[in-house]
Amino acid sequence: MYVPLEAEEIPWAERLDLSLHPGDGTPPKGFSQPCWLHQNGRCSAYAERPGACSLYECGLLKAYLQNQITMDDSMSIVADARHLIDTIQQRIRSEASSESIWQQIAAHIDGQGADRETVAGRFAHVELLLAEQQLAYLCRHFETREGVQLATQHLPGMEAAQTAMQSARQRSWKPPAHVHYSERSGDIVIVDLSAGVTSALSGVAANMWLALMTHNNLDDVMETLLEQYEVEEKTLRDDLWRFVEELAARGVLDVR
């Protein structure tokens, strides 16, 4: 988010060593969030924050004020988003940065290169994309059209970061929403993307889901899973098929 400053607020920002962008006069100088004053989930200069910060209302807050969502549900969304950001930053080994989480992800994906030539690398890559898509899904609650437009127009590098993210995605795998599975041939065909279901998967189920995304043949899926779990092949195959049937019943898999 880009925060434009009024002329009288610029000395305050300079005194606090905020990284100011020159601006073009409409609006004047400003800075990008999160800034270094945001610590442990809170603004450490809350009492003297600039007017743009004070007046800003994200989409989630607006929905709460209009009684469209409860406080408990709102705080749950905030907690989930923070957890996902922490998870992603640990996965990409990112330290505190003034760049947005999307810019950090784009830079990481852009620099992976040969890492995705290995099965472990592909799994790590898919896990990152799953977390990124879940976060993007949650962030729709926070975004406002005005904020997105302002950031795109006035935050240097934002447009380039968006282009880089799009480019990185085009060169990478996308988590699927639908998988066409043929019991006769054992082929698995990945079709599309969904953030909704992946967030419900964990443990063995999550690894099965990742295996389905990483390979296009049931034998390869089984081989990958057998490397991870000390279990008889028949037992694992039965568990995998039950998992496929469960996802099919939820409308996520199209079993043919």
Could you please describe the fold and organization of this structure?
Mean pLDDT is 67; it is low at 145-158 and 168-202. With 256 residues, the chain is mainly α. The radius of gyration is 22 Å and the shape is elongated. It folds into 3 domains: 2-55; 67-170, no CATH class; 179-255. It has 11 helices and 7 strands. The strands form 3 sheets. The protein has a 3-stranded mixed sheet with strand order 6-5-7. Strands 1-2 form a two-stranded antiparallel sheet. It has a two-stranded antiparallel ribbon with strand order 3-4.
Helix/strand order: EHEEEHHHHHHHEEHHHE
How would you describe the shape?
elongated
Overall number of domains: 3
Pairing-aware structural class of the strands and helices? mainly alpha
How far is the N terminus from the C terminus? 46 Å
User: How much helix, percentage-wise, in residues?
Assistant: 40-55%
Counting H and I runs of at least 4 residues, what is the number of helices?
Answer: 11
Largest sheet: 3 strands, mixed
Give a count of the beta strands, DSSP E runs of length 2 or more.
7
> Rg, please?
22 Å
**Poorly predicted runs:** 145-158, 168-202
Q: Order the strands across the largest sheet as they lie in space.
A: 6-5-7
Average pLDDT: 67
Strand content: 5-15%
Throw out a few tags for this protein.
11 helices, 3 domains, elongated, 7 strands, 256 residues, mainly alpha
Give the structure's gist in a few sentences.
By secondary structure, this protein is mostly helical. The chain has 3 domains: 2-55; 67-170, no CATH class; 179-255.
